[in-house]
Amino acid sequence: MDVIGENTFILVYRDRRRKWIVRPGETPRLHTHLGILDCKALVGEPFGITAKTSLNDELVILKPTIEDMILKLTRRTQVIYPKDLGMIMVKCGIHSGSMVLESGTGSGATTALLAYLVMPSGHVFSYEVRGDFQENARKNLARLGLLEFVTLRLSDAKEGFQEKDADAGILDIGDPWEALPSFRRSLRPSGVIAAVTPTTNQAERLVEKMKEERFVAVETIEILMRHLEARSGMTRPSNAMVGHTAYLTFGRKTL
Amino acid sequence: MDVIGENTFILVYRDRRRKWIVRPGETPRLHTHLGILDCKALVGEPFGITAKTSLNDELVILKPTIEDMILKLTRRTQVIYPKDLGMIMVKCGIHSGSMVLESGTGSGATTALLAYLVMPSGHVFSYEVRGDFQENARKNLARLGLLEFVTLRLSDAKEGFQEKDADAGILDIGDPWEALPSFRRSLRPSGVIAAVTPTTNQAERLVEKMKEERFVAVETIEILMRHLEARSGMTRPSNAMVGHTAYLTFGRKTL
Amino acid sequence: MDVIGENTFILVYRDRRRKWIVRPGETPRLHTHLGILDCKALVGEPFGITAKTSLNDELVILKPTIEDMILKLTRRTQVIYPKDLGMIMVKCGIHSGSMVLESGTGSGATTALLAYLVMPSGHVFSYEVRGDFQENARKNLARLGLLEFVTLRLSDAKEGFQEKDADAGILDIGDPWEALPSFRRSLRPSGVIAAVTPTTNQAERLVEKMKEERFVAVETIEILMRHLEARSGMTRPSNAMVGHTAYLTFGRKTL
Amino acid sequence: MDVIGENTFILVYRDRRRKWIVRPGETPRLHTHLGILDCKALVGEPFGITAKTSLNDELVILKPTIEDMILKLTRRTQVIYPKDLGMIMVKCGIHSGSMVLESGTGSGATTALLAYLVMPSGHVFSYEVRGDFQENARKNLARLGLLEFVTLRLSDAKEGFQEKDADAGILDIGDPWEALPSFRRSLRPSGVIAAVTPTTNQAERLVEKMKEERFVAVETIEILMRHLEARSGMTRPSNAMVGHTAYLTFGRKTL
C-alpha cells in the first residue's frame, strides 16, 4: 500500500478553498490558521487518513492528483485551466507513447500534464525563449518526477523545431500564427495542434493562418465550467464562476 | 511513416458535419452524396492526403483521434461527451498504469478512452448488467484494438467488485449512490471517483450519500462548450449549442 | 371582463412548440394537425377557456402577450430576442412617456415593443432605408394597434434625425458606428443608446467609436438563456439552447 | 432642458465600479477617494456635464436610469437582477396601465421598476409580511417619486389579495407554491405570473403546483449575463461573471 514518505507530496485538505500541498521533509510543521499540523508524524501513514492540528482541528491527508499539482503551480504564472486542459488532451489524443511539441513552456504546468500522460514511452519537447521561465519549469518538473519525459529547449519555436513527426503540438504563446509553419513542418501528417488564446482577435487571426497552412478540421471553442451546489432540498448553481479563460483552437495537418 | 492499411480506421473528412470513419478492407468503396470514394486505392498511402470522389469532390484522409472514435460510437447509445470526459480524465488523474473501475460499460465509449489512457501497463475493469450492452462494447473495444487493456464483467457493481485498490472509479449509471459502498471498498485510499448524472436530483442524492460514505473534496460541476465561428471580420459565437449533457460529481476516498 | 372579439388576436396554445396566433374574423376555422378549431365560436367567450378541436383535442385560448406578438413576427425577418429586448428596455429605462429613436425599423418587432412601453404619451421615431421593410413594419404595427405611437421615416439615420432630445436610441443596423454622430446629436444629454450586433468585430469597432464620441458607461454584454426542465425528481437543464443571438452595447451621452 | 435640482438624484460616474447616486440637497459635498465633489455647485447645470473634484479628477454627472436606482437599493437586501427583471417585464407584458400584484415587497426594488412601467394609469399592489421591510420599501419608493402608483399592504399573500383581475403577478418569496391559489383567484384569465427562486428544488415544486392549479405555458428559465471586454485588437469575454442569481418560472392562468 502507498504510504507517505519524507519526499512525498501530500495534499492537506479541509475544503475547496483551504488546502495545501507540502512534503513532510521540507515542511515538517505546517502552520495554518486552523492550527499547526505535524507533517513529520505522517511519514509511514497511508493516504486518506485524518490528522489533527494543534488546535484540534481535523484535516484530511490525500495523495495529490495531477490537477492539484497543476493548480499549485498557478500561483506563479498563468496556467491553462484543467477544464481547458482536459479538452485539449482528449482532442489531441495525448496518451502513453505520444510525442508532443509545446511552445512555450511557461511555468511547466501544461508540460507536466503532458509528461504525465505520455510517460513512460512518450516524450514532450517544450520550447521557451525566456531562460527564467525555463528554469522555473525545470524545477517544477523535477519536483514532480516528470523531468525525464521532457526535453526543455531554450529556443524560439518560430525558428523551427529540431524534432520531426510529432503526434501533437500545443501552442500557448501570444502570436501562435507565427509558429504555425514550424509546427506544420514537425508534425506527422494528420497530427493535431491545439492553441490557447484569450482574445477573439487572436483566434480569428490564427484560424485564418491555419487555413492558409492547409490545416483542416479547424475549430475554435470555449469551455465554461460552473459548480452546482448540490445540497438536500437546496440545490443551486454556484454564484462564483470564472467567466472566461481562453479560446481553444484545434486543427489537423494535411499533406 | 504511418501508412493506411486494409484494417486501419480512416477518417474521411469534409467538414465538421460531413465525415465518415471506415476501414478500406470493410468499405472498399464509400458512397457519399459528394460521390464515391475508392478507399481500397488509399491502402499504402500516408495519412493527411487529399482524395477525389467519383464526382471530383475533394476529401481529406485523416487518422482518427480517440475523440473521433468515441463520437462514432455515439450513434448507438448515449455516450459521455468529450468535454465531460476530458474533465473526468484530468480530475481523476487517469494515465498510463492507472487501474480503473467502471460501472456500467454501456457502449464501451468511455471504457475505450480509459483503456487508451491507461495502456500499456494499466487496466480497466468494467461492470455491466446487460449482456447485449456488454457484447456491443466488447465488439467496439476489439475493433479499436483496446480489448486487452479491459476486463468486462457481466455483474452488478452494487454487489461489489472483485478488484481492490483501484486508482479511480467512473460511475455512469442511473442510481450511482447505490454503488458507492462497492466503489469505496475497492478504491485505494485517496482514490478519486467521478459520476455522471443528467439531473440535479441525482447529483443531490449522490452528494449526500458521498458525504455519508466519508468521501471528501466532493464537488459537482457542469461543463458547457460553445464554438466560436472565427472568421476574418465576422467572428461570432455559434448559434448551435448543446445546453446540457450531464453533471459531473467528484469525490476522494478517505479512510 | 375581457372577451374575445372578431378582431382580437388570440393565442391558441397546446405547448411551447405548438401554438398559433390568429383573429377569429380572419381565420374562422384554424386547421392544425390536432384537428380543426372553430375560432368563430370563440367570439364572446372569455380568455383562458379550453376549446375542443374536431378531433376532440383540447387547446387553451389565451390573450397573446407582447412577447407572443414579437415572436410571431420572427418568421419573416430576424428579430431581437425577448431575452435581449428585456435587458435593453431596463437599461434604457424605456417607459410610458419616453421618446425613442430607432434605426432600422426591420420587421417592426422591436418598434412594437417600444411603442407598447412608451404609450400613451411617448413616441417612437423609427428610421429605415428599405421601403419594403417599412411597409411590412407598418402593417405589423397597424395590426397590433400600435401605429399611432410610432412615426416611420423612410430615411437613413446616418444622415441625421429630424428629432431632438430623445431619451433613448436603439441601433439595429450592420454598421452602427456610422450612425453614432446622428444619435449623439439627437439624444438628450445623459440619454442612453443600445446597439445590437452579432459579431465581436462590430462590438469592438462600435465601442471604439462610442468612446471617440464621448459616450460613457460604455459596456458590451451577452445574454444567454437556458430552460430548466423542472419535473418532480427529474429536473435538468434543457439540451436545446440557442448559443448566441447578439452582443448588446450600451452607452450614455455626455456633453 | 432637464437641469439638476436640489432634490434631483444624480449619478456621479467614473467607471463601472466607481459610481455614486446622491442628491445635491442631501449631499452638498461628496467625499470620494478621487477627491471631493461640490454637488451643490451642480444645481442648475444640465445632465451630461463633466465636473472636477478637489483633486482635479474628472467625474461625469448623469441622470440615473431606473436600473441605476434599482442597483443602488441592492446594498440593503437582495434584489432581482436587471437581467432577470428585463425578462420578467417582457414575458409578463408589463406596461403603462397594467395592474400588477407582488409578493413580497422586500426592498421595493422590483416594486419600483413595476411602478415605473405601469404609471401613470396602472397600479402595483405589493404584499409584505414584515413591517420593517415595508417601511424601508415605502421610503425607497417615496424617494423615487413612485409611491403614488403603489399600494403597500402589510399582509400575507397566501391569505389572499383584496384585488381582482390583475394583469400579472410577481412572486419573490421562498415558498411561492403556497401563494399560488391566491394569485390564481386574483389574476384575470390569461394573466401571467412570474416567480423568482434560487434553487432547483423550489422551481421543481412550483412547477408541479402550477400544473395542479391549471396554469399553462409553464416554463422555467435561467438568464446568464457576461460582459465582453471589447477593445481594439484585444477583445475578450470578461473573467468576472455572476454564475447564478435565480430561476424564473412563468405561467398563465386558465379558467
Key terms:
homotetramer; 255 residues; alpha/beta; Vcp-like ATPase, Chain A, domain 2; Rossmann fold; globular
Strand numbers in spatial order across the main sheet of chain A: 9-8-7-10-11-15-12-13
The main pleated sheet of chain A reads as: 8 strands, mixed
Distance between the termini of chain A: 50 Å
CATH architecture grouping of the largest domain in chain A: 3-Layer(aba) Sandwich
Q: Roughly what percent helix of chain A?
A: 25-40%
Radius of gyration of chain A (Å): 20 Å
**Low-confidence blocks of residues of chain A:** none
Strand-residue proportion of chain A:
25-35%
- Number of helical stretches of at least 4 residues of chain A: 6
* Overall pLDDT score of chain A: 95
* SSE run of chain A: EEEEEEHHEHEHEEHEHEEEE
Number of domains of chain A: 2
Global outline of chain A: globular
Q: Any idea of the CATH class of the largest domain in chain A?
A: Alpha Beta
CATH T-level fold name of the largest domain in chain A? Rossmann fold
